[in-house]
Design brief:
Layout lengths: L5 H13 L3 H26 L7 H14 L11 H38 L10 E4 L4 H12 L7 E6 L3 H12 L6 E6 L5 H4 L9 E4 L7 H14 L7 E5 L5 H8 L3 E5 H14 L3 H9 L5 E5 L9 H4 L6 E8 L2 E4 L12 E6 L31 E5 L5 H9 L6 E6 L15 E6 L6 H5 L8 E4 L7 H22 L4 E6 L5 H4 L6 E4 H14 L3 H8 L6 E6 L9 E3 H10 L3 E6 L12 E3 L6 E3 L5 E6 L2
Helix pairs in contact: 2-3, 2-4, 3-4, 5-17, 8-9, 10-13
Length: 619
């Protein structure tokens, strides 16, 4: 290969300097200006020395003024050579000033674009970092804003591969004013260490990794967890959602011990099954998961050490006791004679942590209003599943753990995988039928009145909004059939978008599980307190005590005004923990649908025969 010529070397050097940006271009303009001024000054001293004042400095000053302000030549006088030199300086100045203005404009625009992209490093402490973007971000940010409503200077920092301004505008449009909480958005890829450095993770209080929408979202989450684990410095507590249960082991390995993983499919499947068994379960769980009213807290109180769990139930004035945390192990509704140790933490529901204080005295209990009822055994049931998706197998397997032997599950769907992979069931007999779940005649052919429970699953072959639309069509058909035929069976529906809940309320379904919202609420709770992971894991597990709305008449005499302390005592005698009630008159009234958690123990309430007491109890 021939060696580079001097001209090629010079051009290569010039190209490299020009590629260094606005500063290098302005430097070249300054050099050209200096050369022009020196040349004009030298020729002025040589050709018209009599018209130059103060020698070379005077000539350079005059040439500089003509270069920077070409209009000055209009007031010049003198010989033709002198005026010609000043004209050259003015023409060169027009070229130089025009280029300078253009470069400054382009450089300023580039700087504004950089600021718009959000590429500066965050200088905050104690902030919550959210990595990634999905529809769950609106739920998480909204809940964190509620959680930090009483705090000044709280920060939520978001890093996603989206335009900074569009992220801010979208959050502002969906959530409105964020109060005292400030949002800081940055554009970048959460999987890139360079972009993660923008978030000042060393000083963050917690990190939330979102599962993005699209194909194979778990791969993105796992790669982000790897990037977090590999970065130097402090590693704040991290929570992440995994869509496919089969990827949990890989995610745990990638994230390390400080990462808590939420199994999205598993959690949603458990809630769907429990809601199908107990009407109102999804509403209760949503109330426990959000930061609006009742929240779950862990509180150590040495004054209760030595007392039994049953004795502690009425101990707090503004909080409801639901369980114990002993040596890191959570138990909800433990045996009533369980002794509270000095190091044990009491698990309570309270509106705010400031409300968790011991009552001055015991609330009044009306023993004459307490009733007793025998617990009936479980009998075989018939359940219908309409639709199919990737989490349907988990739904069926969890349902198999609840029902009595001899129960029947019929699956009606036009999904190609419907009913597959269900070997090894112990209690359920499964039948599958091809059916378009949005078609009225197809639904009527199923004789739905023969079933006690109907579960409507979202079809994952369609985009989320289209899938929710199909679910709404199915619910409307079912409700119209119930009205026309006078049948009654519980209907539990799975949906994705919280905005569709208002539309679904028209169908008066018993429970609507918004799976994405549930996961978003859970992530927000764990971002604030990772110790709650064991509590919610216990709640969603089929083993141990669970939440049950049970007939109020089993606990207190219908229509008799009593304080909630009486309901707590009645449940205690049955080995259960009462946490609230549900009024039948409000089952279709959002946002709580008749559910009241952690009621005032002394406030009088008359529960009717159609109302329910919400308890933690063994099956």
């Amino acid at each position: 290969m021939a060696r580079a010529t001097l001209r090629e070397r010079a051009r290569y050097w010039f190209d490299n300097t020009m590629s260094k940006g606005t500063a290098a271009l302005i430097g070249w303009l300054a050099l050209v200006s200096a050369v022009l001024i020196l040349v004009v000054s030298a020729f002025a001293l040589w050709l018209t020395p009599a018209e130059v004042e103060d020698g070379l400095p005077g000539a350079m000053w005059t040439a500089l003024m003509r270069t920077l302000s070409p209009g000055k030549i209009a007031s010049d006088g003198g010989t033709v050579p002198y005026l010609g030199l000043m004209l050259v300086a003015s023409l060169g100045g027009i070229f130089i000033v025009s280029l300078l203005v253009s470069l400054l404009s382009a450089g300023l625009k580039e700087k504004i674009e950089d600021l718009r992209k959000g590429r500066s490093r965050i200088i905050e402490t104690g902030h919550t970092v959210i990595l990634g973007w999905s529809d769950q971000i609106f739920t998480i940010v909204g809940e964190l804003v509620k959680a930090h409503a009483s705090e000044r200077g709280s920060i939520i920092a978001i890093l996603a591969d989206r335009d900074k301004l569009s992220m801010e505008d979208e959050i502002r449009l969906r959530l409105g004013d964020t109060g005292r909480t400030r949002l800081v958005c940055r554009t970048g890829r959460p999987t890139e260490p360079v972009d993660l450095a923008l978030m000042n993770l060393d000083d963050a209080s917690s990190v939330v990794v979102l599962s993005p929408q699209g194909e194979d979202p778990d791969a993105h989450v796992i790669k982000t967890l790897l990037a977090l684990a590999r970065r130097p410095g402090a590693h704040p507590p991290t929570v992440a959602a995994i869509a496919d249960s089969g990827n949990m082991a890989a995610a745990r390995l990638a994230g390390g011990p400080k990462v808590h993983l939420v199994d999205s499919d598993d959690t949603a499947a458990r809630l769907i099954v429990q809601s199908s068994r107990q009407s109102g379960m999804s509403v209760v769980c949503m109330d426990l998961l959000n930061f609006d009213d009742g929240e779950i807290y862990l509180r150590a109180d040495p004054s209760l050490a030595g007392h039994t769990y049953g004795e502690s139930l009425p101990a707090f004035k503004g909080a409801t006791v639901i369980g114990l945390r002993t040596n890191g192990n959570v138990t909800l509704n433990p045996p009533m004679d369980t002794r509270i140790g000095t190091a044990d933490e009491i698990i309570v529901i309270a509106q705010d942590d400031s409300m968790i204080r011991l009552a001055a005295g015991a609330a009044k209990v009306d023993a004459s209003a307490i009733t007793t009822a025998e617990r009936t055994g479980s009998e075989p049931e018939r359940t219908l599943v309409l639709g199919w998706n990737s989490r349907a197998r988990e739904v069926v397997r969890y349902l198999d753990g609840y029902v009595a032997s001899g129960s029947v599950l019929d699956i009606a769907a036009d999904h190609p995988d419907a009913g597959s992979g269900l070997a090894g069931l112990r209690h359920l007999t499964v039948n599958t039928k091809d059916c378009d779940t949005t078609d009225r005649y197809a639904l009527e052919s199923l004789s739905i009145g023969l079933y006690q429970h109907v579960i409507v699953l979202s079809d994952d072959r369609y985009a989320t909004h289209h899938a929710d639309t199909r679910t709404l069509m199915t619910l409307l058909q079912l409700r119209d059939m119930q009205t026309a035929l006078g049948e009654r069976y519980s209907i539990v529906s799975e949906m994705h978008d919280e905005s569709n809940r208002a539309l679904a309320e028209v169908t008066e379904a018993d429970d609507i599980v918004i799976s994405d919202t549930v996961i978003g609420l859970l992530l927000a709770q764990l971002a604030e307190n990772q110790h709650l992971a064991d509590v919610f894991g216990y709640l969603f597990d089929s083993r141990g005590s669970e939440i049950y709305p049970r007939p109020a008449a089993d606990y207190v005499r219908p229509g008799v005004p009593v304080g909630f302390a009486t309901v707590i005592e009645s449940a205690r005698r049955r080995g259960e923990t009462a946490i609230g009630y549900r009024l039948a008159s409000g089952v279709n009234q959002p946002p709580h649908f008749g559910v009241t958690l952690n009621p005032d123990k002394s406030q009088s309430i008359a529960l009717g025969s159609h109302d329910s007491v919400i308890v933690l109890a063994e099956r």
